[in-house]
Inverse folding.
């Protein structure tokens, strides 16, 4: 597809991206159809929820946040983890990770889109979202952490969407992107990534009404688990890219990512131990939430098997990745990555949000499990996220490959 | 050429599939919306359309407030066929409401809950109650160790009773948490919610240490003959699903000088309500002369609801 | 070679400083808006310091109607005079002297018909109160104190308050009993016998008016 550089413009960029996205072998088309079906199922679920109100979910006045916010919490971490690729590539000038930084940003955008969609479906009155806009509405900044969260998430989405878009557009036109246009924003996005996850952690950390959340370790713990699970997901995506496209990724990239993941996962386990010590060394009434999570309370013990499974697979995954014997064929570590991701997803998602709300501030204990509508909508949003990532990565990889081939750097 | 044709075919089939899926999706959404009654009476629709775009209550001019109240009263007439009167009474001068609860006198009769449900037009379908009465064992002090789901002859021997509701804190964590400022503390101390401004994120509910707030998970249902027709914009007017609500110290009554419904209903006189800034009031007498305490004092929320014993 | 490298590094240094500045100033605003450390006096103590007498008319803009059938109390509370519910109109067979007038009674079983529903459950089990402890023998329209002074039935609190002096003090101040309907305007409170049956004053056991359901 060698065209004149002069005839390439923004419209041909968009047109080419769309064409690249829609074309591919039959397996790719089937994959896209599956994603569209998932999204349709999600839309159907949302229509039911919009009609009935949030009583279509299993949330109640006690467990007022459930599956949606759990997934939101986990995915903000995944979005923040793109920084673990950006930081080495741009600040430490690591050439290997520089090659796959754009994939990290694509995954971050997908995760952010999923986050915002989860918040949207969780709102009681989503059509009134314009009430949050400063100017025509009211934004309770800087008092409300949710206001902070909205600002930082949208800012991060802009950074992670516009900077790669600029770089890709320049590569599409066959020229080097101008450093001063994008490098300051890269540096900004590094600090901003830390900010989005600390702010999301502060959402929970700043509530004295919930002693399970009101501890200083939430922010750092979120960062540690994000930098373990996020790069793990990016690793999975890279394995898929490596096997299904002609964009080849070397083993040493996977190894570098593995080192980042293991460091973060070990710190995460250490912090988990610190929290468990605080709750159970001298249990007080404030430890009731942790007791509910790990051992059950007043007969309600639905989360107990989940949390113990989560911690075990988290530990096993970390150990395998740390002492891995398969340095030459990293793809064998695929299951260990999945174990780690699922473990962190359970423990940081439902294992954080629901116990924080049980028992209620007036001592009532109840149970929570997501309803069918919640599961349907979540599947739909998962489909949406994967769809966004695919749409972003497919043209990006084609452009990058072509740029690399033509400009042997 | 062959590969190009193949690509074109794949694209075409994909686009066909996507288009039909989009049509199916939009059909589903339309069916869903129709169930909401959007294609109902055109006057109701026009009023609701105007209501959607209205401003935040605190920045409305008095004229705009009157306009929205008129629209809401008209909507009540059209949709529910009842005549309501919605006030926008401002706080009085030098008023700061306070509440005291006599733990010795409460016998668990729950007449306060019944009166509150009726006065504030609470949803009967989900049994929403702003007040919770706890049955406590001697030796316990805090309601989280009590039982609020009792239903037997009261008072039970060897137990005492205490009630909790929104305590209208002077330093409310819910007000700090709300991202749209939909909840705030009025000058007379009542923490209120502008229902139409609330987006239903439920962050305030996570922030409240006293279970003071309730969310409308479903569309509230109130039997027509039990609706209280004297309403306040920030009080007991009709709420819909997706909004937060809470005890408002019966703002529609107290701003006219009446007691709250719970204080008036209590047959044992366990509830004392009045103006904290009036040194002659009963609530001040209780604070000066009785041994008073508040719940979760260590959180620094400064609730305006005290407990005392005889 | 120095200049381009310095310019390059500026692209990293400047945004870092900008970001840190924004974060720190945001945090400064966030913490300064917190009321927690503004004073070390709780609200209870702050409110108690407000002792200036209030012009009660400014509290509420509405006119507060005075209920009918009230009497002015014989003593003042901390805010001056107050009213209480009159009692006599609520007693079914008042004027007692229509029967108790030292004349012969011509109805059979008169005492059973008129007073059989009264069971005295006041005082302890061994020595409950007798009728004449409270009712004035010589003028049945009135009550009597232990010292022999007549008390009007509307001012029954002066009699109950002989033994129940703690409750009377609380009732005058407002910690016992209840105001009628309004917290503003003239103070009108329930009388002792508005809530308590004088012959069997303890509140009875009953079923609660409603119940709470466990939240899902």
């Amino acid at each position: 597809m060698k065209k004149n550089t002069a005839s390439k413009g923004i419209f041909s960029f968009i047109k080419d991206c769309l064409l690249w996205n829609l074309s591919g072998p039959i397996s790719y088309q089937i994959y896209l159809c599956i994603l569209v079906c998932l999204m349709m199922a999600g839309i159907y679920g949302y229509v039911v929820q919009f009609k009935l109100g949030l009583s279509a979910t299993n949330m109640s006045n006690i467990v007022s946040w459930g599956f949606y916010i759990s997934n939101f919490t986990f995915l903000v971490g995944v979005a923040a983890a793109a920084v673990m690729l950006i930081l080495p590539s741009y600040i430490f000038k690591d050439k290997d990770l520089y090659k796959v930084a754009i994939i990290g940003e694509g995954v971050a955008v997908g995760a952010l889109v999923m986050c915002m969609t989860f918040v949207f479906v969780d709102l009681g009155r989503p059509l009134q979202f314009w009430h949050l806009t400063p100017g025509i509405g009211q934004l309770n900044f800087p008092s409300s952490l949710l206001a902070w969260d909205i600002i930082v998430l949208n800012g991060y989405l802009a950074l992670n969407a516009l900077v790669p878009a600029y770089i890709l557009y320049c590569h599409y036109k066959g020229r080097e992107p101008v450093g001063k246009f994008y490098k300051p924003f890269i540096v900004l996005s590094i600090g901003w990534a830390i900010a989005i996850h600390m702010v999301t952690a502060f959402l929970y950390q700043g509530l004295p009404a919930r002693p399970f959340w009101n501890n200083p370790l939430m922010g750092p713990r979120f960062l540690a688990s994000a930098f373990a699970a996020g790069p793990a997901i990016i690793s999975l995506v890279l394995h898929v890219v490596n096997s299904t496209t002609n964009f080849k990724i070397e083993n040493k990239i996977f190894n570098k990512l593995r080192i980042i993941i293991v460091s973060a996962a070990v710190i995460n386990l250490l912090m988990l131990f610190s929290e468990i010590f605080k709750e159970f060394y001298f249990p007080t009434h404030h430890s009731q939430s942790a007791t509910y999570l790990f051992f059950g309370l007043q007969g309600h013990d639905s989360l107990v098997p989940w949390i113990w499974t989560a911690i075990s697979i988290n530990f096993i995954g970390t150990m395998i990745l740390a002492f891995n014997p398969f340095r030459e064929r990293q793809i064998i570590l695929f299951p260990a990555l999945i174990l780690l991701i699922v473990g962190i997803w359970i423990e940081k998602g439902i294992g954080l949000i629901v116990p924080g709300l049980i028992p209620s501030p007036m001592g009532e204990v109840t149970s929570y499990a997501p309803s069918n509508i919640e599961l349907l909508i979540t599947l739909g949003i998962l489909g949406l996220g994967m769809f966004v990532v695919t749409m972003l990565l497919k043209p990006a990889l084609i452009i990058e490959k072509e740029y690399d081939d033509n400009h042997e750097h | 050429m062959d590969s190009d044709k193949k690509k074109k075919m794949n694209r075409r089939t994909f686009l066909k599939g996507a288009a039909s899926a989009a049509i199916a999706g939009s059909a589903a959404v339309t069916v869903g919306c129709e169930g909401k009654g959007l294609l109902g009476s055109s006057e109701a629709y026009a009023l609701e359309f105007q209501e959607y775009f209205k401003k935040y209550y605190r920045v409305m001019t008095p004229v705009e407030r009157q306009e929205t109240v008129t629209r809401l009263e008209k909507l009540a007439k059209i949709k529910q066929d009842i005549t309501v009167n919605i006030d926008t009474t401002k706080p009085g001068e030098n008023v700061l409401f306070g509440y005291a609860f006599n733990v010795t006198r409460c016998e668990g009769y729950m007449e306060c809950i019944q009166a509150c449900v009726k006065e504030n037009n609470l949803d009967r379908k989900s049994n929403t109650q702003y007040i919770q009465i706890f049955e406590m064992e001697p030796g316990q002090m805090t309601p989280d160790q009590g039982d609020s789901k009792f239903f037997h002859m009261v008072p039970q021997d060897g137990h005492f009773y205490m009630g909790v509701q929104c305590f209208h804190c002077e330093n409310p964590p819910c007000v700090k948490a709300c991202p749209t400022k939909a909840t705030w503390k009025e000058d007379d101390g009542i923490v209120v919610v502008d229902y139409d401004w609330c987006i239903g994120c439920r962050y305030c509910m996570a922030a409240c240490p006293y279970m003071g707030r309730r969310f409308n998970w479903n569309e509230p249902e109130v039997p027509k003959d039990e609706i209280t027709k004297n309403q306040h914009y920030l009080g007991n007017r009709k709420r819909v699903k997706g909004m937060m609500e809470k005890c408002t110290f019966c703002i529609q009554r107290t701003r006219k000088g009446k007691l709250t419904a719970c204080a008036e209903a209590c047959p044992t006189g366990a509830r004392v309500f009045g103006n904290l800034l009036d040194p002659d009031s009963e609530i001040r007498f209780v604070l000066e002369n009785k041994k008073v305490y508040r719940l979760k004092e260590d959180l620094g929320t400064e609730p305006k609801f005290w407990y005392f014993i005889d | 070679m120095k200049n381009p490298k310095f310019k390059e590094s500026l692209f990293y240094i400047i945004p870092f400083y900008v970001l840190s500045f924004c974060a720190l100033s945001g945090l400064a605003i966030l913490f300064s808006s917190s009321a927690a450390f503004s004073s070390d006096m709780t609200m209870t103590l702050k409110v108690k310091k407000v002792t200036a007498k209030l012009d009660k008319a400014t509290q509420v803009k509405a006119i507060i109607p005075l209920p009918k059938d009230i009497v002015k109390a014989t003593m003042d509370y901390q805010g001056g005079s107050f009213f209480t519910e009159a009692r006599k109109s609520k007693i079914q067979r008042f004027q007692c002297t229509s029967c108790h007038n030292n004349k012969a009674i011509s109805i059979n079983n008169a005492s059973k018909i008129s007073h059989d529903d009264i069971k005295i459950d006041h005082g302890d089990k061994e020595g409950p109160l007798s009728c004449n402890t409270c009712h004035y023998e010589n003028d049945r329209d009135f009550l009597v104190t232990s010292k022999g002074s007549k008390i009007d039935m509307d001012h029954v609190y002066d009699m109950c308050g002989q033994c129940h002096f703690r409750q009377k003090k609380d009732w005058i101040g407002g910690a016992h009993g209840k105001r009628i309907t309004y917290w503003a305007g003239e103070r009108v409170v329930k009388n002792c016998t508005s809530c308590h049956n004088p012959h069997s004053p303890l509140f009875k056991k009953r079923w609660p008016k409603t119940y709470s359901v466990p939240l899902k």
About this structure: The first strand of chain B starts at residue 85 and ends at 87. Residues 97-308 of chain B form a domain with the Alpha-Beta Plaits fold (CATH 3.30.70.20). Chain B has two domains: 40-83, 97-308.
